[in-house]
Write a structure and sequence with these properties.
Distance between the termini: 70 Å
Order of helices and strands: HHHEHEHHHHHHHHHHH
Strand content: under 5%
Number of helices: 15
Strand order of the largest sheet: 1-2
């Protein structure tokens, strides 16, 4: 091609820019603000949509839990007995008299200590047995695991009243299976032994009943958590010379820590709120050495007919449980920050 041909070559005309506001905007282009508007229009509802969806559930919770709690707080600051219950007298506001009365009562503090010790023993025993069963489920064959899971679910689904009746039969003074079995041991005579003759021994039986009903949930939950433990970390720990306890302490426990914290908190709340096991086991009339905070509040309100005092005891129990929840939330926030 000559120089002349080069100089006379046609150059494509430059594309004229379209006026603003006319023409079609290419896909994927446009002002960032316009794209954000289109995204918001597609999402619909904005930040208020989740609250609108949660509104029915929140309304039910407010109705079911909010009103009883508000009524409990109101009664705890009032003098409310049978005359007020039947409408013969108007409730009388007494300020903090109900709280000063129970906080200055030595029997109340004895019940608090008994409840804390009972809940602590039940929680520790539940978590230990639940962890052992969960570890066992990881090491047995499939059909054995299935049988254990069926037994756990069956015991977990059994009504509390039925389980309490079974335990009453097991520990019965005259016809109890436990007395018969222990009497078969050499040098042991447990015939006619009354397990509820003393408070500590009777509460131990009730604690075993509570643990028996709580272990299945803990075991199944921990068993599911153990499936998330990386096998590579366990193999690496074994190669580094760690034994079974070392692998469990430094590999398994850190992975299961969030689940353990959650289960421990729930167990504390449930075990401090134990009522039907004690009430039914003692035939509806728990003796003084068997009183826990729940049964003590019930007796104060419905046996002595001091509904204000019973409400004050129940409110103190709620505050104690809120303290447990606060510790749980703090631990979960620490775990979240560490991760």
């Amino acid at each position: 091609m000559s120089a002349a041909d080069t100089s006379t070559a046609k150059v494509p005309p430059a594309r004229q820019s379209e006026p603003a506001g006319t023409g079609r905007v290419a896909r994927g282009t446009g002002a960032p603000g316009q794209r954000g508007v289109r995204r918001r229009r597609r999402g619909g509802g904005g930040a208020g949509l989740p609250w609108a969806l949660l509104a029915p559930c929140l309304a039910v919770l407010l109705l079911v839990l909010g009103y009883p709690l508000a009524r409990l707080v109101t009664l705890s600051f009032q003098k409310f007995g049978q005359p007020q219950l039947w409408g013969f007298q108007e409730p009388e506001s007494v300020g903090f008299a109900n709280f000063t009365g129970i906080l200055g009562d030595g029997e109340f503090w004895a019940v608090v200590v008994r409840t804390v010790l009972f809940a602590a023993g039940a929680v520790v025993l539940t978590m230990v047995l639940g962890m052992l069963i969960a570890l066992l489920l990881q090491r047995v064959s499939g059909w054995v695991r299935t049988l254990i899971n069926i037994a756990l679910v069956a015991s977990w689904g059994m009504p509390v009243i039925v389980a309490t009746a079974i335990f009453k039969w097991l520990f019965d003074t005259d016809y109890g299976v436990l007395n018969w079995l222990f009497s078969r041991l050499p040098g042991v005579d447990m015939s006619g032994h009354n397990w509820f003759a003393s408070g500590p021994e009777g509460l131990t039986v009730i604690m075993l009943l509570v643990v028996w009903g709580a272990v299945p949930f803990v075991a199944i939950t921990l068993s599911a958590g153990l499936t998330q433990v990386p096998r590579e970390l366990e193999e690496a720990a074994r190669l580094d010379g760690a034994g079974a306890w070392g692998v469990f302490r430094y590999v398994t426990l850190p992975v299961l820590k969030p689940i353990i914290v959650m289960l421990t908190t729930l167990s504390v709340i449930w075990d401090m709120g134990v009522f039907p096991q004690v009430f039914v086991m003692r035939n509806g009339h728990p003796e003084a050495e068997f009183q826990l905070l729940t049964t003590y509040s019930y007796d104060k309100a419905f046996v002595v007919n001091d509904y204000g005092g019973g409400s004050a005891i129940a409110l103190v129990t709620v505050l104690l449980l809120l303290g447990v929840v606060a510790v749980y939330m703090r631990q979960m926030l620490k775990i979240g920050e560490a991760e």
